Amino acid sequence: MHTAAHLRVRPIERTPVPMHTTGHITPVTWDEPTPAEQGGPGPRLARASVVNAFSGGIEAVETACEYVIAYVTAKTGTFTGMEVLSGRLDGREGTLVVEERGRFDDDGTVHCTFEVVPGSGTGALTGLHGTGTFTARHGEPSFSYTFSYDLDQAGGRDAPDALHRPGTFSADGCA
Length: 175
What we know:
- Helix content is about 0%, strand content about 55%.
- By secondary structure, the chain is mainly β.
- It has a domain at about 20-30 and about 40-150: SO1590-like (AOC barrel-like, Beta Barrel), CATH 2.40.350.10.
- The two termini are about 15 Å apart.
């Protein structure tokens, strides 16, 4: 017979359940200076400073974004960038940085994936991990995004860590 003194209590490890959210991005400004001559026709590099507004699951009135762009032709190429978003994610307030990578086609369609920079979440977004995508069609005033994310146990959640949450322990065997 085992008594309570002989039972060992250990936390149950939980895998964060990914959350999914959607919304729209509206470009506010796009500043892409004409680059200096880069040695004739062919590929060229450019940079752009951009401000966007996010609505929906992510609410950020004015972001700060910097892109480096590689034009393969006059209308096609790839880009990479960093964007700082300050606002709310499904009601949780804080700041985060996403790294973006994408391409644009000759019809002006932009395809992009983005990922939260590890450790960049602040406030209720501390411990945030996530990835998202968007496709922007030339001439549209805004475009939709999808974002899947989770928060580390220590970050952003209302409940304390798993050791102190009701129902997150198990008794197994004798000591």
